[in-house]
């Protein structure tokens, strides 16, 4: 990933390891800009305040691995993006000082939403804000559903499909019953309008046809005179007057004269005159037909004017022209079919609502069963992770309860109760269940909501345990943890580093941390350094290894980089972490 002009970072390139990459640095050095850059590449909100002072724009560029046939490759293909020769996708996001943002993918300008879709397949960012969000009941239900996997998500989709139908029918039934008088009046008006239109029976485009016909009838004498004169000019007089041969007669005479000529050039003009003669003959025939159809009947004109008056009566009420009147009639018929307030129609709707309610209750029950089964597995896996994070006596309970309907709730769902009777529940878009994570701090302790039972450091460990469990069921290849180890130290910090290193065996893991115990487990260690020149602060990112890495770990150990004791402690941390990683790799190979 390359960052330019973002926060305190002037320009930096981050080579991220396929395993565990840690990012460290002094407070205020700009470590969080790495996560901010990832957020921008993931289609996150662009803020002008993030642009470095004195820079015209901030640029973040990332190189993603999107194998052919993967979901990420499909998102890119649909957007018209093209991968590089090695199959990698280049994503680019720019933010200007006025807050404008642009996104590019695979050499193509794309909407920011495309980067969001791509990142959903490739990267998941977990930070302290995610910890706070996980404390909300709705988020805890979402976490459990995500852990449960595809079977539950498919069941949830089925539930939502039936719920949408049930809600629509129940709403329509309630509206029809409450507005029966108003709807009946509206239905009467629609029926009256339809009856009036059906009685006149207008035809598409009839008003335009009548205008043309009326004009012909009113101007019949003038039209006949013009057509007759034109016919004479083309075909000659019907009496065959030799002094008025017409154009056809004159062309015939010309052809005769040319054909008698001995000059080839004159004879060659004969066929062209024949073409002109054929064309004029067609015009003469059409003029004769027009004269025969011309009607000067006053009664016919009165009929046309009367029909126009009928149509005008409709266009004054319903639309500007006949085609608009016909469109109004079609819409009225459609609306009328939805305004049936008869007892039979209401009974049919009620029957359909009850049928859908039974189906919805079954879908909700199936959803609950899947959540209960997943809750037990989820609780056990998180508890195991807690034991490895120096919380051996703690355990997690996942409590699933029913959300009962509020008094006077409009659309409550009736389900079978535990005592054999029926009960009314709130059927929300995610089912009828409430999900709550509870922590048992030690043996014999009362289970309490996580945020009430855990201290600050314990809460971080609980959230990390949840993130680790979710990561194993998360299909995205890259996981980012932004200081989720806040408030943790000592042995627990070592266990967090060990957990993240194990997670890096199956995912690319990027961790922003202030703990040397975590940083010691890294496969690649990046340090964000801040310096000031000429009164301007800037940060860059460098890879540290060997002695430089020992110095950085010693600095993280309460600023002990300048002491032999601090460096010895840092070397000890690195040695212990490396031994642990090798042992873990051996166990996996077995």
From TrEMBL:
Chain's role: May be involved in recombinational repair of damaged DNA.
InterPro entries, alphabetized: DNA_recomb/repair_RecN (IPR004604), P-loop_NTPase (IPR027417), RecF/RecN/SMC_N (IPR003395)
Transmembrane regions listed in the UniProt entry: none
Alphabetical list of CDD domains matching this protein: ABC_RecN
Region Disordered: start-end pairs: 221-247
Family indicated by similarity: Belongs to the RecN family.
RecF/RecN/SMC N-terminal domain segment(s): 11-531
The keyword Membrane appears for this protein: no
GO cellular component labels: bacterial nucleoid
Compositional bias ranges of the Polar residues kind: 225-234
Gene3D superfamilies the UniProt entry points to: P-loop containing nucleotide triphosphate hydrolases
Record's keyword annotation contains ATP-binding: yes
UniProt KW keywords: ATP-binding, DNA damage, DNA repair, Nucleotide-binding
Molecular function per GO: ATP binding
Protein name: DNA repair protein RecN
